[in-house]
């Protein structure tokens, strides 16, 4: 079986890693502020962005074909839709 | 076709089927053969089903009179919890995908096994471990849990019974389910026979495909939720208990985000079985193949977003209740499409009323009752009155037992000759069906009446006005037991003394009927090439 190799230069990997560290710092820091209804949205937004970075670069989704990308984003869509419906309850309770 | 001609004959001498390929306990418990793993599941699932039935019979016997009949209230609470855990996690969820899916999915798509045979065996081991953990609650710790199979917080984080072991059992069983789903998705993407494009794939694999995505995406949520219960009980983290800052409604959200899609894990494969069986016994192409395919996918997709209808009276916001009610009505549409297509397939068909078709017809009838009463509880105003009453118990038993249970037994009669190479007594099978169908309705229909009258579910005691229908229902449970005994005795007898079955006992044209009964280790003597649609009965005239 042929194995395809994807060479990603170290500079880019380190850059992504630093981004993830910064975003982790952001997650911790913003936790002390009360953004009212936006609190959850911001926290989940940062977490989702970090997930996309990990999936796209470290897990090589970037190099996969459109089918796999569609599958992953469909799953992400389901998760977002579930959370959106969940927060209809919490926003109006 | 040469292979079809061969398959109609009784298997020749010298032929080695998958039973005879190797012998001894080791050859079974370390097997990678999908058919053997399916049978390992079969014995486990049927064993757990019978335990669940016994618990159900005991519960019904307790309810024959008000007050104490044969057990104390705490025992009754534990019995309905264990009955639920066993029937949901150890029977209905794994039954169709793990047994018939494992056995027939590769054969139906012309493959020699699933994509990951070792992972398949691991799934079975996890199933067995989870099952043992669930049963161990009977003897370990402070007694079996008394929370109901839903483990609702905050009671589940406060009760002194052995909740942790039970939720860990469900956690482990979840892994088994995820791995099976993953295996099936990859198998269908990668291992279809030459010529079998997606729209030539039989409808049972399609149903399994939709189900597998639900298994893979939804099951982790219940895993995390149950771990949160454990964290709350052990570490005192305030997730769900309001006295330490938690939200009990959050538990219900998280639980049903998985457990409602899990209802589709239970029913979708059963619908696939019905779609598989009906064309064979009416010798007609299925009506609206693509509509059935897309309705399976639609049910799986919309099914993710309707969980809140279990929580209409739990203190959710009014806006959320309206959204969930609308979405619930939406999910009924693809189910209706399927029922229409099955009936339309039978219309003007050459109907051969064999045992499996009887089960298919019973499925349609009982599932319709279960489905329509689901709309009653999906409507906000009606649900307020019947929520947590026997009406709901009747509704989900009509869907789960009347639907999935009947489809399971029907499929067992359909594929039994293929799996075991023996034919059962058809007359006794029909009698077993008749007794089971009658008993089922005597057992569960009175529960609709009791529910409308206001009898709450899970209550140990009741007022005298409910007495008559409780008695009728209990008697129905005895008839169901007799029906099951007839069915099981007939199949066991067939296994030991049944007539050898031909390769194609029902005249089907899907790939499993092109191989011998029981199939060889790698399913086919030579890899099949697909040249026609799965239900294209016009080829019989050529």
The gist of it:
Chain A has 93 residues and is mainly α. Chain A has three helices and no strands. Chain B starts with a helix and ends in a 42-residue tail after the last strand.
Description:
The complex is a heterodimer of chains A (93) and B (542). Helices cover 74% and strands 0% of the residues of chain A. With 93 residues, chain A is an all-alpha fold. Chain A has one domain. Chain A is flat, with a radius of gyration of 17 Å. The N and C termini of chain A lie far apart (56 Å). The model of chain A has no long low-confidence stretch (mean pLDDT 88). Chain B has 542 residues and is mainly alpha-helical. Chain B has one domain (33-541): Cytochrome c oxidase-like, subunit I domain (Cytochrome C Oxidase, Chain A, Up-down Bundle). Chain B contains 16 helices and 2 strands. Chain B has helices at residues 2-7, 25-29, 34-62, 73-108, 117-136, 155-158, 163-190, 203-235, 248-282, 289-302, 318-346, 355-378, 380-386, 390-420, 426-453, 467-497; strands spanning 422-423, 499-500. Chain B has a two-stranded antiparallel sheet. The longest helix of chain B is centred in the N-terminal third of the chain and has 36 residues, at 73-108. The model of chain B is unreliable at 1-8 (pLDDT under 50). The A-B interface holds A 75, 78, 81-82, 85-86, 88-93 and B 217, 249, 253, 257, 301, 304-305, 308, 315-320, 323-324.
CATH homolog superfamily of chain B: Cytochrome c oxidase-like, subunit I domain
Low-confidence residue ranges of chain B: 1-8
The CATH topology assignment of chain B is Cytochrome C Oxidase, Chain A
Please state the structural category of chain B: mainly alpha
User: How many strands appear in the DSSP assignment of chain B?
Assistant: 2
Strand order of the largest sheet of chain B: 1-2
- Helical percentage of chain B: 55-70%
Strand content of chain A: under 5%
């Amino acid at each position: 079986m042929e194995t395809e190799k994807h060479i990603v230069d170290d500079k880019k990997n380190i850059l992504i890693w630093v981004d993830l560290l910064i975003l982790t710092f952001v997650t911790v820091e913003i936790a002390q502020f009360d953004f009212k209804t936006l609190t959850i949205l911001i926290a989940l937004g940062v977490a989702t962005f970090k997930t996309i970075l990990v999936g796209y670069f470290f897990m090589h989704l970037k190099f996969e074909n459109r089918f796999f990308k569609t599958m992953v984003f469909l799953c992400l869509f389901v998760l977002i839709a579930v959370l959106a419906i969940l927060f209809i309850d919490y926003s109006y309770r | 076709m040469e292979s079809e001609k061969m398959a109609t004959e009784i298997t020749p001498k010298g032929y080695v089927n998958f039973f005879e390929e190797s012998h001894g306990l080791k050859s079974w418990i370390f097997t990678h053969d999908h058919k053997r793993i399916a049978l390992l599941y079969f014995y486990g699932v049927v064993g757990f089903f019978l335990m669940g039935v016994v618990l159900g019979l005991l519960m019904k016997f307790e309810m024959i009179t008000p007050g104490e009949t044969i057990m104390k209230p705490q025992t009754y609470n534990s019995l309905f919890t264990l009955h639920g855990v066993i029937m949901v996690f150890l029977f209905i969820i794994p039954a169709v995908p793990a047994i018939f899916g494992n056995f027939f999915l590769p054969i139906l798509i012309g493959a020699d096994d699933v994509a990951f045979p070792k992972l398949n065996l691991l799934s079975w081991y996890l199933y067995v471990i989870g099952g043992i953990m669930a049963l161990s609650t009977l003897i370990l710790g402070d007694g079996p849990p008394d929370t109901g199979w839903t483990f609702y917080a905050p009671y589940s984080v406060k009760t002194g019974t052995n909740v942790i072991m039970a939720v860990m059992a469900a956690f482990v069983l979840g892994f088994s389910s995820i791995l099976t789903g993953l295996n099936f998705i990859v198998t269908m993407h990668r291992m279809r026979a030459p010529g079998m494009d997606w729209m030539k794939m039989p409808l049972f694999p399609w149903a399994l495909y939709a189900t597998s995505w639900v298994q893979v995406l939804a099951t982790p949520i219940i895993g995390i939720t149950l771990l949160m219960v454990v964290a709350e009980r052990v570490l005192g983290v305030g997730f769900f208990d309001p006295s330490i800052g938690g939200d009990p409604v959050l538990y219900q959200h998280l639980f049903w985000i998985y457990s409602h899609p899990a209802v589709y894990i239970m029913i979708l494969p059963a619908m696939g079985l019905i779609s598989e069986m009906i064309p064979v016994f009416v010798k007609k192409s299925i009506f609206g193949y693509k509509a059935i395919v897309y309705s399976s996918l639609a049910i799986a997709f919309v099914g993710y977003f309707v969980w809140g209808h279990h929580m209409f009276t739990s203190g959710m916001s009014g806006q959320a209740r309206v959204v969930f009610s609308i979405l619930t009505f939406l999910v009924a549409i693809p189910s209706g499409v399927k029922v229409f297509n099955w009936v339309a397939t039978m219309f003007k068909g050459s109907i051969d009323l064999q045992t499996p078709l009887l089960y298919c017809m019973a499925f349609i009838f009982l599932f319709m009752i279960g489905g329509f009463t689901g709309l009653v509880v999906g409507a906000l105003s009606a649900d307020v009155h019947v929520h947590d009453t026997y009406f709901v118990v009747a509704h989900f038993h009509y869907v789960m037992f009347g639907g999935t249970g009947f489809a399971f037994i029907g499929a067992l009669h359909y594929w039994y000759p293929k799996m075991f190479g023996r034919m059962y007594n058809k007359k006794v099978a029909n009698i077993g069906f008749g007794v089971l169908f009658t008993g089922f309705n005597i057992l569960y229909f009175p529960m609709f009446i009791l529910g409308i009258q206001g009898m709450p579910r899970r209550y140990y005691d009741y007022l005298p006005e409910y007495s008559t229908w409780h008695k009728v229902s209990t008697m129905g449970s005895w008839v169901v037991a007799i029906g099951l005994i007839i069915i099981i005795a007939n199949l066991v007898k067939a296994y030991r003394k049944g007539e050898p079955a031909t390769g194609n006992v029902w005249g089907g044209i899907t790939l499993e009927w092109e191989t011998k009964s029981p199939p060889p280790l790698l399913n086919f003597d030579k890899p099949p090439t697909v040249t026609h649609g799965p239900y294209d009965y016009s080829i019989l005239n050529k």
